[in-house]
Specification:
single chain; 18% helix; alpha+beta
């Protein structure tokens, strides 16, 4: 005689509690055994009207959402800092000059042991030009300003830093901590031309926020300088 559904359920509960479901290895833990039993329909009937064993196993959602993927053809750079890594998608198609410039500096090892020398919470973090002793590294000539590419300075985007002169960007870059629309291209006067966005943060925005929140002070030559240097250890580009 076959035991009733209720009896089978009682037996399964007993087997789970004792860690000895028939047909399972003794090495399987009671918790794992319970999960296996549930997926095989051994814990009793499903919804009303469903036959015993017909209930489908429920797959739990992932613990963490996957990081956004770069668009096809876009390179990816990992900025390793003393406070964590920042992964950046580079917009090769929309900012080819800025991306090529950034990639060349990265592959030359230029960014290793530079710092984020200007940090403003609610605004941006800027780095890639000074050593921890505040010595400015020599650079290649300035590049074309690609601020007219239609990309905006929204939170998480990466752009070229420059002086007041429109075409003065070299190696330094910044990451927007907030939506900074006043940095966008709106016209062709010096005050309207804007700053060229060339990438966006794929992963590590928490690191950006952590850097933006460090205590700062003013030196003889600049403001908003982290009291404890935030060091860029390396920038690696793939592929």
């Amino acid at each position: 005689m076959r035991p009733s559904s209720r009896l089978r359920s009682v037996l399964v509960v007993w087997f789970v509690a004792s860690g000895s479901i028939p047909g399972l290895s003794a090495s399987v833990s009671p918790l794992r055994a319970s999960a296996i039993a549930a997926s095989s329909g051994q814990l009793g009937p499903g919804p009303a009207g469903a036959a015993p064993g017909s209930t489908k196993a429920v797959q739990a959602p992932p613990l963490q959402a996957p990081a956004p993927m770069p668009a096809p053809g876009h390179q990816v750079a990992t900025v390793e800092t003393s406070l964590g890594d920042i992964t950046i998608e580079l917009f090769n198609d929309l900012a080819p000059v800025s991306v090529e410039n950034f990639v060349q500096y990265a592959r030359d090892g230029f960014y290793a042991d530079t710092i984020f020398h200007r940090v403003k919470p609610g605004f941006m973090i800027q780095g890639g030009g000074f050593t921890p002793s505040f010595s400015e590294k020599p650079t290649r000539p300035p590049i074309q300003n690609e601020a007219t590419n239609g990309l905006r300075n929204t939170r998480g985007t990466v752009a070229m830093a420059r002086m007041a002169a429109l075409r003065s960007a070299t190696a330094q870059f910044y990451v927007n901590v907030a939506d900074n629309r006043r940095l966008d291209h709106t016209g062709y006067s010096p005050d309207e031309f804007g700053y060229a966005v060339f990438g966006r943060v794929l992963a590590g925005m928490d690191v950006v926020d952590r850097i933006a929140a460090v205590p700062t002070h003013s030196t003889e030559s600049m403001d908003d300088v982290p009291v404890q240097p935030v060091i860029i250890k390396s920038v690696q580009v793939r592929p």
